[in-house]
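In the current project phase, the collection of sequences with tokenised folds has grown. A representative record is quoted in full directly below:
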Amino acid sequence: MATQLNIPAWFDPKKVGEIWQVDYETRAVQALDWAKKNNLKPAASDHTKVCLMLVDPQITFACPKGELYVGGRSGTGAVDDSRRLVEFIYREMANISQIAASMDTHKVFQIFHAHMLINDAGENPAPFTLISTDDVRRGKWRINPGVAWSVANGNYSFLQNHLLHYVKELENSGKYALCVWPYHGMLGGIGHALVPSIEEALHVHTIARDSQWIPETKGGHPLTENYSIMCPEVLTTFDPSTGGSTPLNVQRNVRFLEKLASFDVIALGGWAKSHCVAWTIEDLLGWMLDKDPRLVRKVYLLEDCTSPVVTPVIDFTDDADKAFQKFSDAGMHIVQSTTPIEQWPDVRL
């Protein structure tokens, strides 16, 4: 299709890490004028359909004032990533057919939030505390009885059994241990909203290309983490009648997996590289290998548009890099946002 476009004058890279209100009406008018000057066509006419998948591009992760800011080792990781993402969207406006964005969506009572757990002294765990199976068995951490009425209709025994089942399932599957995250992505809060500069770019793209961006919420079930857009971490709970397990009321997001697979090119970036990005790609890879291994070649990972979680307790950078190497070895492409899409391997616009 078209070559790269110039980045519009309204984009201010200095505001990428700030929290502000998008001027929707002004940008809509400018988007139409910009589309006309650049001869942009409706995305429905694209010969090669390109989807940009953004993982959790929210204030909570990508703005320094966010509750779980992903600074990476540099400390400016998500801000730098955001700037590159927005510039990529504007430069490739003529080639990106549709944009999808997941939104981590939480309430207070979630298995990874502090108020769900207490010790014998009635204290909640500090942020970034890791909870092991041994911790739960020994009673170091247990479910807060006060949440039982809201979460399980007062069935505290069920919740405590589920907690042990949950941490065992994480360990048995080789996933990260249960981590107590700071309250983040809170439904209705500022942190839940999209990064304004990214939201503005999505607004412009929707109007300039006549292509509505796709929101995908995740993370609302109180009894499981949901790093991946495609599937919660644990799909089962303890079954007291058998001593085994029974399904939770959650499932794999097959509808969205099939939607992504319908595109010719899938570009992916967002946060965090070590968690929600890595787990989303892991689930996408597994589903594609089962459905048709050739689908894997459609995926392009924007390596300069994602950063890993780095906390005072643990640095996940090496885990993130190891995951991306696995995805590359499986046939996915690792690319830079500064390389034009038309120059990416196997792409024919």
